[in-house]
Fold this sequence. Notes:
This protein is α/β, with parallel strands linked by helices. It is built from 15 helices and eleven strands.
Amino acid sequence: MNIADLTLEETRNALKKKEISSLELTQEYIGRMETYKHLNAFITETPELAVEQAKIADHNIANDNAGKLEGIPLAVKDLFCTKNIRTTAASKILGNFIPTYESTVSQKLLESGAVMLGKTNLDEFAMGSANTTSGFGNVISPWKKNDGSNQELVPGGSSGGSAAAVAAKLCLGATGTDTGGSIRQPASFCGIVGIKPTYGRCSRWGIVAFSSSLDQAGVFAENVKDAAILLEASSGYDPKDSTSVNVPVPDFAAAMTGDVRGMKIGIPKEYRVDNMPSDIENLWQQGIDWLKDAGAEIVDVSLPHTKYALPAYYIIAPAEASSNLARYDGVRYGLRADEDALLDMYEKTRAEGFGDEVKRRIMIGTYVLSAGYYDAYYIKAQQVRRLIRQDFMTAFEKCDALLTPATPSAAFAIGENEDDPIKMYLNDVFTVSLNLAGLPGMSVPAGLDENGLPLGLQIIGKAWDEETIFKVGGVLENAADFTKKAYK
Ligand code: GLN
């Protein structure tokens, strides 16, 4: 048995039955991290800590005191603060920042017994769709086109390191954050499952803030069931986050009954965008047919304000980012440039510490919040946001969940789409509206494009109804029988 071939659930069972130990499992994954170092999926690796935690896990398992993730090796996006472990947000400005506290989500995973392999790479401050804005070098997808070109592809972003690590089996699961698509888009590009739950489901406490009203933590896993297990362990009310909501956390895996008979699945017509590659169009139709065959009823719905979602997002997200990132002034965290006068020090620290994309967002954000433009841009975008949410509410009167493509293309080459920021922003055309509306969504790998690259389908649920998403996701996953070709 090759232990890296086991799913998270299978690994958990094998650990429980003591067929394997967490120590040997952890060492296997540490070995794989070494072998696949060229992917640059991690900014900071913590193998010594992982080995220590694995020994404790084995002890707990031996004493029948195992947590739900006891001994399972995971990775954490380097946007989650981890106590005594460097947390960079992939920015030079936080290059030497060592938090004195642990984020709630990573704390929950630790309390469940998980073993932490390290901190994964991302776009700087989670701003990007290709993991090419990282101050620590881009991440390379484990996938290659089937044309023999050997071209290096992006893993998607911003949680590209987590997605690449799960796809290449460098860990059994990983955390991500999704402000406009940063879990679902890289999951789609890497052929794995990624879920962004309802806003307020996972605590934002201890996550480096990008756009606070949109940011939401979530998880990556190889399959839907594993994602359900991980999301349950990550979720729950946290009084330290004022937007955390005190609702019960269901057993998401138990919702995967395989039975979608009578369920109504909405197909939003506005998601049929111009120039959609035929592979994606066909896969979407295939997904519709799979659900129909499983007994679901397909209904047409309309989300009329969809075309305003990206423009509204690219006002609101930079506005909040410009405010959130004001704290990096060289005084309290990370990098400090050497200048005598205070203002010069601020300026030089920020000029040296932030990359181009982050600077672009700060400038846009400051502009749309400035006197005279605030009403025209920021207030208007907030009004549009309300209409987008209303669209979903109306659509959900007719259906239980929505099915759409996850991304408008498969993974592209590193360097492609870098010339024009708008091209990069278009990656999120199917994902951002959920963040604006606070709704949960999951990308499930459903097929390959003509180049042999993975494509995901997105399931969108009502607020707090991740269970339906997992139910539908399980059925799609079964029907698609998506067998990963990379990195067995
Ligand atoms: N790609 C989007 C952006 O650049 C979303 C990023 C995210 O979800 N963190 O803002």
